[in-house]
Amino acid sequence: MTTTFDFSGRTALVTGAASGLGLAMVRAFVGAGAKVVLFDLDEDSVRAATDTLNADHPGRVTALAGSVTDPAAASAACEAAVDFGGRLDVVMNNAGISGNAPSLELDEATWRRAIDVNLSGAFFVAQAAGRVMAEQGGGGIVNTASMYGVVAAPERAAYCAAKAGVVALTKVLAIEWADRNIRVNAIAPGYVRTALTETLAIQGRLDLGALNARVPAGRLGTPEEIAAASLFLASDTSSYVTGQTLVADGGWSSYSYL
Ligand SMILES: NC(=O)c1ccc[n+]([C@@H]2O[C@H](COP(=O)([O-])OP(=O)(O)OC[C@H]3O[C@@H](n4cnc5c(N)ncnc54)[C@H](O)[C@@H]3O)[C@@H](O)[C@H]2O)c1
């Protein structure tokens, strides 16, 4: 997918960059001319993705392994971007996990992990990025929320609560940092066709036919479509947009189902 956005001379940090939406965001930023730091918990995958991208775009990407739940690692990732590209212009705060279970059976560890990665991790990365961006005179942060931070579904208590928290966090940071020229927005994807959804479908845990029928658009989204909407929020084209959550869900959350 081609976009009209130009990120030449800019440096982006993408978390959860080794697969799915994060990797599509990396590809979109590289395609738009940026240098990109890929940050992910999965060291082997993030290095493999970086090697592949560097073969086509020498010197444009680099990898760092770590967890967004560790504030020191979040700071190190932001510093790595400054070392790599001289600045930290954009952060795609994208790392996330699910952790679905019926609420009567949801165990403490699963609850804490989902909140820790999806919400606390998003804050630690945004805080580290905000410190760098405030110092350099501005920047843009795009948090990956979910349509399940805006509407709800059963058996997703921790995920929905965490992603709704990301939507609220986005507003707070946006109003705190607007006078420092830092914009903070969120992208809220609906169901997206990734390796994860494909695997769940093959295992019979996700009914793709039923999902397609439920989405007004009649299909799941693609990682490239989510990346393109994220690029808009990170780009100068959206220069007066801050504190917003852009729901990219093919109409799912607008449709009050029969
Ligand atoms: N796929 C969808 O349908 C969908 C829909 C709505 C929202 N989202 C959100 O989009 C984001 C990306 O999801 P995806 O579908 O691409 O998932 P994915 O599992 O393909 O990718 C997530 C990546 O995050 C990494 N990660 C996990 N925990 C981490 C941590 N603590 N620190 C650093 N990296 C970590 C994983 O290693 C993985 O590479 C998540 O925030 C998810 O909640 C996805």
From TrEMBL:
<dbReference type="InterPro" id="IPR036291">
    <property type="entry name" value="NAD(P)-bd_dom_sf"/>
</dbReference>
<dbReference type="GO" id="GO:0016491">
    <property type="term" value="F:oxidoreductase activity"/>
</dbReference>
<dbReference type="InterPro" id="IPR002347">
    <property type="entry name" value="SDR_fam"/>
</dbReference>
<protein>
    <submittedName>
        <fullName>NAD(P)-dependent dehydrogenase, short-chain alcohol dehydrogenase family</fullName>
    </submittedName>
</protein>
<dbReference type="Pfam" id="PF13561">
    <property type="entry name" value="adh_short_C2"/>
</dbReference>
<keyword id="KW-0560">Oxidoreductase</keyword>
<dbReference type="InterPro" id="IPR020904">
    <property type="entry name" value="Sc_DH/Rdtase_CS"/>
</dbReference>
<comment type="similarity">
    <text>Belongs to the short-chain dehydrogenases/reductases (SDR) family.</text>
</comment>
